[in-house]
Structure formats: C-alpha cells, structure tokens
Amino acid sequence: MGEAKAKRERRLGREKLSKPISRSRFNLLAIGTRLSPAGFLYEEVAYWADVEERVIGLIARDITDNDYYWSLLARDRNGRFRSADFDASLRSAEYATVALRERIATAVTEDDLSVLGTQGDETNHPTDLLSVPGGTKPEDLHPNFRLLLETPGRAPARAVFRELGPWLAPSDPHFVKEFQTKQFDQRLWELYLWAMLRELGYDVTQPEAPDFHCRSPLAEFTVEATTCAPSVDGVLADHPEPKSKEEIREFLDHYMPMKFGGSLTSKLKKKNAAGESYWERGPGAEKPFVIAIADFHRPGGDGEVGSMTWTQEALWLYLFGSRIEWEFVDGSLSVRSVKIGSHKYKGKTVETGFFDLPGAENVSAVVFSNAGTLAKFDRMGVDAGYAPDDHRYFRIGMRLDPDPNAVVGTPFSDEIVADCSEGWSDEIQVFHNPNARLPLSLDAFAGTTQHRFEDGNHVAYSVGTPVLSSQTLIMRIVGDDQIEEASV
Fold it and tell me: What are phi and psi of 49, to 5 degrees?
C-alpha cells in the first residue's frame, strides 16, 4: 500500500506540471505545424501544455483504426512548435492523455528544451516581425506598425505576429522592413492570407512568384496577393467623398471598379524577364491560379471606417460585368443579373468584366476579404487567450440574414472573448471565374462564401451567417469605468 500511495502521489505531482489548453490556443501556437493530410487521417481530441507553455501536446483518434495517439511539440531553433515525440496505437483517449502528461513532465524536468524540438532544417535568421533594427528612425515606421508595437490593447495581435513570424521564409528579403515601414498594409494582407490558407488545411510554401503555392488532398493552386492602394496621380487621385445615396452608387459603380481593375489587370499582364506570367511560374505552373485582393485605398482609423468594409460590392460588379437588381413579386424577392457596359470617371473609361478580358481565363478565381486588418489579428489573439486583463474587445457590424427575402444584413454586437472560435477564413469571399481554363472546385475553399455565375445568374454559397462588415472596438478598463481606446 505504501508503494502504491507513493506512486500515486508522484503521478499527481507530475500532473501538476501540465495543463489543458483550448483548441484556439493550440491552433495559434501550432499554426504552421500540421501537414495537409492530417485532417483526413486523425480527429483531434484534446490539447495540453506545460504550465509555462514551453512544450505543447495533442491527443488524436486515428479515424481508420479507431485508436489514439499523442504528439509532443517543442520549439525548434527558429521558435516554431514542431513534433518532438509521439506514440500511437493506444487503446483510449484517457490512456493517451496519461502518457502525454507524463511525457510533458519528463520534457520540462529532464530534457534540454533548447534542443528537444530541433529539426535540422531551421534557417539561420528566423523572421521576427516585431523586432525593429537598430538605427531605424521612429518617423520611418508606418503609423499602424507603431500602433501595433506601442498600444497596450494590441497585445493580442502582437502575440499572433510572434507566432506567425518564425514560420515565414519570404523570398523577398525586404518583407520585414516593408511590413514595419512603407508597405504595412500590403504585407499585413499577405500574412493574413498565409494564416487563412493554413487554417483551410493547405501546405503553403512561398516561391519567388506567385506569393503562395498551396497543396492538400483537396486541391493544388497558387495565389498572388495584391491590394488597392491610394492613387497618387491620374484622375483616380482625386478621390470622391460620396455622401448621398446617388453619390455612393456612382462611387461603387465607377470609381471603385477602376481601383480594383487597376490592381487586377496589372497582375494579369505582368511578366518576368523570361516572358512568363504568374500562372506559368514556379512549382504551381499549370495549376489553378488565384489572385487575392484587398482594398486599402482608404485605411480606417481615428474613428473612420476603412473603405474595405463597404466597397466589396464594386468588386463583383467589375469581375462579372453584371449588377444585381431585385424586386418583390407577390411578396417574394426576385433577383436578376443585368449586364453593364463600362465604368467611367472624369473622362476615364474602363471596360467592365475582368473575367471576360483576354488572358483572364488563366485566373481561376479572385479571393477577397474586408477583414485583413489589424483588428482581425487582435480578435484572433483574444480568441487564443492573449487579451490583457484590463482590456475588453467588442465587434459590431452586419451579418448575412438567412431569410431568402432579406435584402440587407442583420446588425450584431458581440464581445470578443477567449475560445469564441473565430476563424481566419470567416470573412473570405471567393469569386470563381466562369471562363477559367483551370477551374477550382467549391471544395478548395470549403466553408467560405463563394460566388459563381450559373446559367447567367450570380449564385452565392455560404455557411451559417458570415459577417458582411464590422468594426472592432478596444476598451481599456480604468477603475469602475470603461474608456474606449481604439476603434479599428
């Protein structure tokens, strides 16, 4: 009895060295770890870590054999959580959990954690998105990067960037510098896309061009990222300030399609020194090619709503060359697609229908999101449990109304808390090219909102009630009062 009691007390003592963690926390810490076939082979059951989160662990069920395994992950020399040990063919989740917790205890009491996760493929210089090189002038930093670095309420976003950075090995050696200085929005969009593609289950590499090569059992394709930036010359530099319904309609029907068109057609026409287009280059040549676009031509901040929250209507107008018109017939909503001509603004005329342009048949789809902003990184950090104790986070906006007769979304107001299960891909919209030479299946972006033209009509597929547009409010608690710190 004495020996049994001693063994029990030892086990209980070692179990105090580990703790359960949420799926959201594990997903962030292991954001680059899973290989694409994993989701088809295993069902994840539980997640664990040591109390200081120096190592993390996973319990999963083998879908084929209906037995269990555990995996221990430790940081490699670049700071990425990688597989360090595992055991399989275990009879139950409970048995696997006991074994994993004992392995965690061994790792933190006996192993050298500086080498436990070493893989041998680490780079000499891991990507650190937040470390500013010595000698950098403060005025050279992008205003939004300074907000990220210096604002206490941005701690959740900083936690996210610390985990994303080590996984990135951009072919562009200027990536970090541009993220911190002149091209913050563009690089932020690429970081968002990488995280979104990883969440969708793809193995993602970064060739010289296009930006991403994505592979999984579902699909293989390449992605080139682009953004709408402020125009510095030409007629589009004279930005309108629409206020009335008529002015807003004119803005969305003409000015914004030109903005989207400029960014998209530049990618369509660009060739390298060898005369190759994006879809002809790199390991994804002759695979479906996708352009991912975001609108940063009028960033938000200082109480203003960024243009990306409401200009998406102009994108599908330009892509398909059709507008959606609707009316109620006998109490039911009737929708039809109507072809349009061209877009005109201050003497400038642009042909509509990007997917109908010569060469556009090589673009399988266009991906858009109005959520690739700092606010998204904050919310994902809060979801993973990195919110400061003296801050609260709220999201207000419009969701899709599932009523088939609805013509506007439904307003919502949510407090963002840990484990609210927000996804990187929640706001993604995929516009499939009806003329694509290499079309993408709906499965390639399963779970997102997807648009196709079928029998001459615009058809949208979505899951649940996705957010159409939103703002994130960060509140700092001061005594018994709450003071709004930022609206982004």
Answer: -155, 165
pTM: 0.93
List, for residues 246-298, the tens digit of each pLDDT value. Answer: 888 888 888 899 999 999 999 999 999 999 999 999 999 999 999 999 998 87
* Burial letters 460-478, b for 16+ CB under 10 A, else e: eeeeeebbbbbbbbbbbee
